[in-house]
Amino acid sequence: MSSISNELEKRLWSAADELRANSRLKASEYSTPVLGLIFLRYADYKFTQAEKEISSATTGRRRRIGKTDYQARGVIYLPDEARFQQLLDLPESENIAQAVTNAMKAIEAENPQLKEVLPKTYNRIEKNTLIELLRIMEQIPMDIEGDAFGKVYEYFLGKFAMNEGQRGGEFFTPTSIVKLIVEIIEPFQGRILDPACGSGGMFVQSADFVHNHKGNGNGQISINGIERVAETIRLCKMNLAVHGLEGDIRQANSYYEDPHRCVGRFDFVMANPPFNVDRVDKERIKDDPRFPFGMPRVDNANYLWIQLFYSSLNENGRAGFVMANSAADARASELGLRKKLIESEAVDVMVSIASNFFYTVTLPCTLWFFDKSKRNTNRRDKVLFIDARHIYEQVDRALREFTPQQIEFLSNIARLYRGEEPENRHDNAELLTKNFPDGKYVDVAGLCKVATIEEIEAQGWSLNPGRYVGVAERKADDFDFVERLQELNEELERLNVEAHQLEERIAENVGMVLEGLV
Length: 518
Description:
The chain has 20 helices and 11 strands. By secondary structure, the protein is of the alpha/beta class. The protein has a domain at 6-159: N6 adenine-specific DNA methyltransferase, N-terminal domain (Ferritin, Up-down Bundle). Helix 9 packs across helix 10 (201-212) and helix 9 runs parallel beside helix 16.
């Protein structure tokens, strides 16, 4: 079987995007129906495969093949009117939009797990555009490897996120960031939670991790998510489906609602929550056990998310999440919360990420990792800091990502720190040997440093890797002006964010003083 190539993904996207450009639709109106057609093509592919297997297994027997035969193989059952080829073969005089919409309704009726998930807005798409879209999806070959449809779906999801700007950032986390989080927390098996799950990328990559480590993703991990926006839940459930996965995804507001009864329940927590959210009603949640360290006084939800991730873990649980850079150095009440968190001995790894990894924000960010099980190891009073701001591949002028080799290298630093065997599925051995010649963890200036809680206290309880890692030595002629300018610009952006936060705090404190004088 041939594997789907990047060229095919690009060709499919280019054709679909050109159709949108010549239609009256906004990207937000076009994205979900197109993703629905990718789903339909995937479902038809899996159904056709199962049909052949069932037919050959029942040769010579007088038994009618029915829906239960397909369900027993974990395949979405498709009635005749939902078969992809039947839709393709419809004459142009037919109402194509209604036929596709009816196909989606028929699939939901036969498969309860997809109820109210699939798009049914094809009547908004012009007939010629819809016919061309069906023909574009037909180009996905039927002899591809299993997860190829998932890769096409993921590629389109990322492209739509880029086109949709801020809303895109709300439902899509860049894949290379997700992969790095997954590789560091290593979700081999157990219950996984993402309380801000968006389109479900954390779940998909977790299942991929299990598969790559000789396990069956759907059998070894239990997927649990929370998402506030109904439309995004539909994207998530379709994303899971095209990867052959199912999960318990609930619609709720994670600040105020706890549909999974999260406290102490999960083996793994992964998330990319919204940064610096204000106006959360802290009075409603001040006694909620999900926030064990207390309420921040500032109007910023970062430390509500951080506590939610921490409290959802069981005693051996690990968490990995994306967070605004400013949270690692935040002062006042947030510093007090961070101190309690560090003293709990759960903070395990901190990774600085360069700017321009996200479609909607150019600011750099930090990846935080918790590991409650380290309390029983010699790492209990230590934290690994990694500065990965100089590690990336420039995709284009405005966007960066990690290569598979870079992801493996960074996650291998964490493995060495934990005393685990490094991996070499993506040829990072040379890079690893260059930095860790004895095959054991050592501090490397400009790259990584293990600091004790005592050292962290001396740094004002900062969790900013730049405070600990230092700068790699350079030769006199090893100065890269562009690289240095980027570093200075990132530092300026970080300081500007901190200055803005400080202004807000001063205004808040002045307001409190004035209220007291009235």
